[in-house]
Here is the input.
Amino acid sequence: MIAPALRPAPHRALCTDCGVSRLKNAAACATACQFIQPDYAASERAVHGRARDMGSDEMFFGPVQAMHKARLRNPLPGAQWTGITSRIGERLLETGAVDAVLAMAADPDDRWKPRPVLVTQPSAMAEVRGMKMGHAPLLALLEPARDMGFRRLAVIGIPCQVHALRKIEADFGFERLFVIGTPCSDNTTTESFHRFLALLSPRPETISYLEFRADMMVELRFDDGGKRLIPFLQLPIADLPPDFFPLTCRTCVDYTNALADLTVGYMGGEGEQWLIVRNARGAELVALLGEEVILSPVGAARDRTPHVKAFLENTRRAAGGLPLRRMPKLLRPIVGRLMPRFAPKGLEFARARLEMKAIETILHLRREAPRKMKHMVPPHVWAIAERYGLAPEPGETASGPEAPPRGPGHSGRRAAPSPTKP
Here is the structure.
């Protein structure tokens, strides 16, 4: 495993430190950054051969060739779920399909702090398993990878990293490039995350695992083997400082990592992992697992609408600087236990989260960076938010072909799109 030294990062507004600013050509940020002037439809066409179909669930999820619920028959120890992402990396190295995998390992001094590394041996993929929290300059290692003669590369990244990668990948001349994307919604600094852990346990240093689950629970695991489930409603979110989640993460519109070849997440998995195969390279990645992976159809259940409407009201208050309405403490445990029984499941849960992200993006940008809205909010996000009465105001959209089309106007209960080869 190779972890080259990194150049310092220059200051950038609305920056998640994806690593581009640490390259020799730091000016590439101007065209690569997801938060400056992205063109999602053009990028999707360049990567997948077509843009998302706005008349189907692709409006939410991006271009889709196939979707699956998935789990490894033999889960990998230390993995966040069953370890599909890191196992694909192992298989790519075992088969010689790539020379290296660019991913995140934990910092030697902090298990939660991400550190970009180039993995060249299959066994070393064990060191990139599990969640890390914090901004991480993954793409800064593209230059060392090229300079070390790696011609075939796999990259495992979150959306802001993958978006920038797609803009600059041609500059590096890789013969083959596989991109495995993980969804991302809200990130924070590693230091802030430690403060969050301290609110969850009197011994935060013993927490070894944290996962936001689709059943409205947060799962904690501890070094001594203990586990704890916390209902979302009982999380101390209101006790966090206003800047705990930076504006970039509150206004990210690519939760599902639409420019990856394969997205590996959890939202539509109903307790398992959720695979979105986006193109032929993504299908090739899944095929590497063979009979090691169990695939099954995705499903959907229960109505997301009341949950999203409640989120809209709370976000309006938060974005307007008003105090959030806190549920009485006596009711929180009761409602927290009941929520999983009534919450949306599967693709309906995934649609709910994406509608919440669209709402959050629009309301927070209106308050904190209104001049950036016409560049940062793409047409598909306006189409998603339309269902809840949010429409662009004068000056909030680009002119001409970038003006937002109307969404399909359906209830959101359509099946996943039919397989379409890019």
